[in-house]
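YM 10:42: Protein translocase subunit SecD sequence, as discussed on the call
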Amino acid sequence: MFSVLVNEKKKAWSLLGLILILTIAAAIFVYPEPYNQAANFINSKISFLKLPGFNPKTFRLGLDIAGGTSLTYSTDLANIPESEKSQALEGLKDVIERRINIFGVEEPRIEISKASSEWRLIVELAGIKDINQAIQAIGQTPFLEFKEEREETETAVILEAQKNNDPRAMLEDPYFRATSLTGRYLEKAEVQFNQTTYQPNVLLNFDEEGAKIFEELTLRNIGKRIAIFIDGVPLSAPTVQEAINNGSAQITGQFNVEEAKTLARNLNQGALPVPINLISQRSVGGTLGFQELEKSLFSGLIGFVIISLFMIFVYRLGGFFSVIALIVYVPLVLIIFKLIPVTMTLAGIAGFILSIGMAVDANILILERIKEELKQGREVNAAVKEGFLRAWPSIRDSNVSTIITALVLYFFTTSVVRGFALTLLIGVIVSMFSAIFVSRTLIMAFMSPKGVNHKLWFRA
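YM 10:58: structure's back
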């Protein structure tokens, strides 16, 4: 029995060394300034060492901390079938993200949310204080659509209704009807020149699905006009002579070369699958955000100190080792936040602080179970093993229920709550590792094989 405990102690010390190395590496990655200062000082004293500096990327800060611009756009899904709306909205999100990335805006947050019966596009650009610059980053990406010519009788009916101020008719185009062919099917746009007039035109090439739609559209409209609209403005309305099956169309208009190039570039950067309209714009200052961040971190530090004092007072050395495990827990969570990376908002920081409480809760369950085993007359070494073993089901079940809740919040709520849910989820998963593995390793490493004083270790 004695030799078994000695072997377990050696194994615990080996694991403790790995935990220490992992914790130091995580701490340097999270907060490299002390290491860099120490490395510069050593390099100045011992020049041949030349210790390298370490400059990892900083935390991704949310709009409420770093400041920036928030833009809200309404979307027009009237001409999109119900079955395709979800796909169209995702396409819109992807297009806007590509558009912003071209302008070099770092870490934009782009989300689709529903307000009443209307879908909205929310764009948050941290660090962009100039709203006009933000709107330019989104850009007036053209909405491209093709419309087919109405029958003369249909046109007459709509015009008559418009004369009578029919509100529905006033929203209708009396001459052209919307089709399913829009910019979402565009594969490429390029500038070409008319060989006779040398007038610049924009040639459109559709993807495979768009080519089929265009062929069907031209086939049923031979001898009629098909109008090409950009942002609701008709640019050209050529008459179809025959079905076009090569998936190409041409926009002709009174362009100069620069206008044609701009139109082609904007279409290539992303022809919007859904029309959008800016309905709200808001600039957020970073000063208030940093003040709230400082308050949150200070409150977290105060909470950590109070929890540490409580654990040491109630559980003695067992509580002290729980605090050490908690200190290991913090940089491990923060390095995951950096690597993913997680956007740190005030709500996200609240989730992280709450996860610290969850980590302490697991340690309390373990230590209380150990105390119960000691009261039943078990030896300390046996009580520790049994305490960890029997506390695990309670820790597992409570943390799994929290993980399920965090997942529901993350997948079915909006951005602010999602930030809270994500940091809480990561924190709870890591807390299970620190509570079970790190705490047990510390206790086994420092416990004497011959046994210890119950009251000194666990106040039992």
